[in-house]
Design brief:
This protein is α/β, with parallel strands linked by helices and about 240 residues long. The chain folds into two domains: about 50 residues, Vcp-like ATPase, Chain A, domain 2 (Roll), CATH 3.10.330; about 180 residues, Vaccinia Virus protein VP39 (Rossmann fold). About 25% of the residues lie in helices and about 30% in strands. The chain contains seven helices and 15 strands. The strands form four sheets. It has a seven-stranded mixed sheet with strand order 9-8-7-10-11-15-12, sandwiched between helices. A four-stranded antiparallel sheet has the order 2-1-6-5, with no helix packed on it. The relative contact order is 0.12. The site of S-adenosylmethionine (SAM) has 21 residues, from helix 4.
Length: about 240
């Protein structure tokens, strides 16, 4: 599904370096790694300053942190809930709108068979395209189209809407989905959630639940064990629905 021609270097300081071009020496604050070492199959290599690095194949989550950011992305806690609740897998065909920065659609592409992504804004389209290229996925069809005007895909397992007025695309999502398919809508504001749920009442889309997921990080260091003082108070509400 994706090809990787790069490596991730791990240094004992916990710093990670993504090497995108193996044909050249790579410079770090801990010294330079030679291209010969980078191209070799060695698991441990040393810089010209004698610093040791572990060579890793970058995973999806390593590359995820390299994504170029444009519009507000959906963050991993919310993406994780979509993957868990809908149970999408290697057989699943998905539609996502709007593409934004690609955080959600790339995470879906990592587990699904194929995904079509609608993004109306040309600048955001370019960001998603760059992020697709960086990740190397080949199962994504990116469309610079207005999803409110229609969805051409059919027999879809999951439709995700992360855009301001999902009720305008509801009829298209309903047509695209197979019976039993999931529609997940991500909205920052409860008034939007209410408007979306009202709109579903005239359709075959049945809302199961609306959730907000709160993530709290903890500081665990020597004798300090407490929640971090700062946290992300709110991201968005996730509404899970199915075509039945
Ligand atoms: C909040 S961002 C989506 C973020 C994305 N889910 C991610 O994880 O990176 C919303 C995106 O929806 C796009 N959008 C808004 N209306 C749209 C429409 N009618 N059709 C397609 N895309 C639309 C915007 O241009 C914007 O990029």
């Amino acid at each position: 599904m994706r090809k990787i021609e790069r490596v991730l270097l791990h240094h004992k300081s916990k710093k990670l370096f993504l090497v995108k071009d193996l044909a050249d020496n790579f410079h770090t604050p801990f010294g330079t790694l030679s291209k010969a070492d980078l191209q070799s199959s060695k698991e441990k290599i040393k810089s010209d300053k004698g610093e040791l690095f572990t060579v890793l194949q970058p995973s999806f989550s390593d590359l995820y942190h390299q994504l170029q950011r444009g519009p507000q992305v959906m963050i991993q806690k919310d993406i994780g809930l979509i993957l868990a609740k809908t149970g999408v897998n290697q057989e699943s065909r998905v539609v996502d709108a709007g593409g934004g920065s690609g955080s959600l659609c790339l995470s879906l592409a990592n587990v699904c068979k194929e995904i079509s992504v609608y993004e109306i804004n040309p600048e955001h389209y370019d960001i998603v395209q760059k992020n697709i290229n960086m990740m190397g996925f080949t199962n994504i069809t990116l469309k610079q189209e207005n999803v409110y005007k229609g969805i051409s895909e059919t027999d879809i397992d999951l439709v995700t809407f992360d855009l301001p007025e999902p009720w305008l695309a509801l009829e298209h999502g309903e047509k695209a989905l197979k019976t039993g398919g999931w529609l997940v809508v991500y909205l920052p504001n409860l008034l939007q959630v209410k408007e979306f749920i009202e709109a579903t009442k005239k359709t075959k889309i049945y809302v199961l639940e609306t959730l907000e997921l709160i993530e709290r990080k903890w500081k665990i260091e020597d004798r300090i064990m407490r929640p971090e003082f700062e946290m992300l108070g709110h991201t968005g509400f996730l509404t899970f629905a199915r075509k039945l």
